[in-house]
Specification:
Blueprint lengths: L5 E2 L2 E2 L1 H4 L2 H29 L8 H7 L39 H8 L6 H9 L1 H4 L13 H14 L20 H4 L5 H7 L24 H12 L6 H7 L4 H13 L4
Antiparallel strand pairs: 1-2
Helix pairs in contact: 3-7, 5-7, 9-12, 10-11, 10-12
Length: 262
């Protein structure tokens, strides 16, 4: 039996709707999303050329702020964000092996494909273009900067991503190497997570605070050790991680890594 919510005027409107009415509303919402994506694709086909003309050299410098999450070029791999090789012409939310938000996957199913135009719109205000996205980047206001980044992405994204057996080449020893070798206890991680979720959303949304849901194990552990050792400067995170040992960090990585974003 469904729960009935009563107010001054009697049963709530949602409780009084028939299953058919609720189904019609759900279908209308899905159809609306499909129409919106189709409209965007039509605009992209007409005005895509307007997003061309960037300088890849300038884009490479601007891309440095993206590198901590997105790999691109020969042997790129998924990390905190999906790798960007083969990006152009790819449906949104479709890269195998990466945990996208349901919002991104829905747009992909409704026809959103990455090209010069759609990337230009997305990079300007990611959370307005895809409400519910996991990407915490607030956006790039300057259109010339966006065009430079897009030109750089287009030049490098033709490379093949890393194969399943390829191992990343480390420039230095991993400070979290011991924790990375542990099989974290996800149940223990859930117990420890109560302080994490006072700020980070369990849904995986990045509304002002970065998402930590679905992160790869090594990336999660590396980030916590960088806060712990002040490589990343953030007083709250330093206070949270200073007393965490390898077992606790591995457990948190196992718990949050196993979650699927909504």
């Amino acid at each position: 039996m469904g729960e009935v919510h009563r107010g001054k005027g009697g049963p709530g409107r949602d409780a009084c709707r028939t299953p058919r009415a609720r189904g019609d509303r759900s279908r209308a919402s899905a159809n609306g999303a499909g129409l919106a994506a189709a409209f965007l694709m039509a605009i992209a086909g007409t005005h895509g050329a307007a997003a061309e003309g960037g300088d890849p050299g300038k884009g490479e410098k601007l891309y440095r702020s993206c590198k901590s999450c997105h790999e691109i070029g020969a042997n790129a791999r998924n990390g905190v964000g999906p790798h960007l090789d083969g990006l152009f012409g790819r449906a949104a939310g479709s890269l195998e092996g990466f945990k996208y938000s349901s919002a991104m996957k829905e747009l992909g199913r409704n026809g959103l494909v990455w090209n010069e135009f759609t990337l230009d719109v997305y990079l300007e205000k990611p959370r307005e273009f895809v409400p519910g996205t996991r990407m915490s980047f607030r956006g790039m206001r300057d259109r010339d900067d966006r065009l430079h980044v897009i030109a750089y992405l287009k030049a490098l994204s033709v490379n093949a991503p890393a194969g399943p057996e390829a191992a990343p080449v480390l420039a230095r020893a991993e400070m979290g190497a011991v924790a990375m070798q542990l099989d974290g206890d996800a149940a223990y991680g859930e117990y420890l997570s109560s302080e994490c979720v006072t700020c980070h959303q369990m849904s995986g949304r990045a509304d002002g605070i970065p998402s930590i849901v679905g992160w790869p194990k090594d990336s999660f552990i590396r980030a916590l050790f960088e806060y712990k050792t002040n490589i990343r400067s953030h007083q709250v995170m330093q206070n949270m991680t200073v007393n965490l040992g390898n077992e606790e960090i591995a457990a948190l990585a196992a718990y949050f890594g196993a979650l699927d974003p909504q």
